Amino acid sequence: MTAPKIDDPDFWRSGPDRELAEFRRRCPVAELPDAGFWAVTGHAQITEMSKDPATFISSKGVLIGDVKREVSGNDSILYVDPPRHVTMRRIVNRGFTVRRVAQLAELAESIVATVFDEIDPTEPVDAVDAISAPVPLLIIAHMLGVPGEDIPTFRKWSDAIAIAATDPTDPRAMAAIDFFGYFNAKLDARTAETDPPEDLLTAITADAELTRAEQLGFCMSLLVAGNETTRHLISGGLVALAEHPEQRAALAANESLIPTAVEEMLRWVTPILAMGRTATCPVDLGGTAVAQDAYLVMLYTAANRDETVFGETADSFDVTRSPNPHLAFGIGEHFCLGAQLARLEAKVVFTEILRRWPNYQILDGVEVGASTLLREITRLPILLQPNS
Ligand code: HEM
User: Fold this and answer.
1) 331 in contact with ligand 1, CB cutoff 6 A
2) 168 Cα–ligand 1 center, Å
3) pLDDT digit string (tens) for 79-117?
4) Cα angle for residues 286, 306, 274 (degrees, 5° grid)
5) Where are the alpha helices (DSSP H) in 32-97?
6) Which of 96-105, 131-140, 187-196 has the lowest mean pLDDT?
7) Structural domains in the chain plus CATH codes
8) Residue nearest atom 18 of ligand 1, based on CA coordinates
9) Considering Cα of 176, then 151, then 372, then 277, what sign does the dihedral take?
């Protein structure tokens, strides 16, 4: 069996779930000499790695492409190892407490209502532009204090940074350059305020522990981590429900199932395909010997279809699945900081969609992106209210 071309963005365009499943069954931990890294596809092995951040570190790279670049002391929290990571996480957690996220529920509801009110549901629209992109974007913009007039630029930066994650030399990635100047000024202004509001920017500027580079790195991580991911979860969830109309009808009839359905969408879509780690010493991983300095790519997307965990129905979409120990948010030290927020956004979006337009139809012309990081839907033609 030839090894899947995990480092080729086009591989991900082809809908490779079955190929990955076969590969995982044969070798859940496999060296890919041509690619220069290891592929870890088993749920148990990814869990083991993620819970041992001393042996499997993030500071030498986390993206598939990082294996080919020099990564050193990146300022994004994603690249920081303990003990520094524990300190950073403590600071930024203040922006994501249960109370803070609960406060955002009202904001999410009002953003979703405003965004949906602007759509003419009797005409075809691109759901990415009309629904999936604006909702998370407006919420993150609010959290980072970005005013309405700057939102289009904010989206441009987000897209450019996501492109850079797959290919930093792509000329479109240059659009992100102004991001740093903009947020540097914003952080300066916030630091100078005598009575700052109790929000995320204040949480990261109030603590002298974070350097300015780290503060900027955190704003950048939020922009991509909290924006593109949730966008693709919403788009992928729309497609999954349309492909399973009986489950969509069950959800529309019983909203209390929506949180369970969101977990299944997370498992099914797995918006972040994979993340990497570097072994700091020779190690046995699920019975396979891994050499020191090996770069290991944890394929969350493959682990989320692992039948040793999800049983015979691993390859079926089931909005009632419970328990659902998916790894869409990672696990362990770097578990997604925004998991509760993403869940909240998806819950509000799908509740409102199923109330307003339970029979929406996906039209021809769906386009998927080529990315080694994100499972992207870049265009999603939709008719929200057919037959009216
Ligand atoms: C469906 C939506 C989302 C998915 C699938 C997702 C997925 C992930 C994953 C897999 C990781 C772990 C990275 C690793 O293993 O190294 C992660 C980390 C992170 N996520 Fe999310 N995420 C989502 C939404 C969000 C949102 C809404 C935010 C913030 C507003 C956010 C902020 C972060 C941050 C800051 C980290 C880094 C945490 C750390 O390194 O300690 N994410 N996310």
Assistant:
1) no
2) 20
3) 999 999 999 999 888 888 888 888 899 999 999 999 999
4) 80
5) 43-50, 84-93
6) 96-105
7) 9-383 (1.10.630.10)
8) 336
9) positive
Cα separation of 113 and 135, whole Å? 10
177 CA distance to ligand 1 middle (Å): 22
Token digits for 253? Answer: 């009839």
Query: Are 326 and 267 in contact, with CB atoms under 8 Å apart?
Result: yes
Which two tokens mark 226?
């909290």
Residue 237 near ligand 1, beta carbon < 6 Å: no
Judge if the beta carbon of residue 61 lies within 6 A of ligand 1. Answer: no
Counting atoms of ligand 1 from 1, which one is nearest the CA of 140? 30
Ligand 1 and 275: CB distance under 6 A: yes
What tokens appear for 222 in the block?
């939020």
Contact by Cβ (8 Å): 91, 210 = yes
Whole-number Å distance, alpha carbon 211 to ligand 1 midpoint, is 21
- What does the block give as tokens for 23? 């590969």
* Inter-residue contact 149 to 134 (CB < 8 Å): no
Measured from the Cβ of residue 357, the count of other Cβ atoms closer than 10 Å reads: 18
Does the beta carbon of 303 sit less than 6 angstroms from any atom of ligand 1?
no
- Tokens 């609010």: give the residue: 142
What letter does residue 122 receive in the DSSP assignment? T
**Nearest alpha-carbon partner for 379 in 134, 126, 159:** 126
> Would you call 112 exposed, middle or buried from its count of C-beta atoms within 10 A (0-12, 13-18, 19+)?
buried
Residue whose Cα lies nearest atom 11 of ligand 1: it is: 336
Tell me the CA–centroid distance for residue 189 and ligand 1, in Å.
27
- Summarize pLDDT for 148-169 with one digit per residue, the tens: 899 888 888 888 887 877 777 7
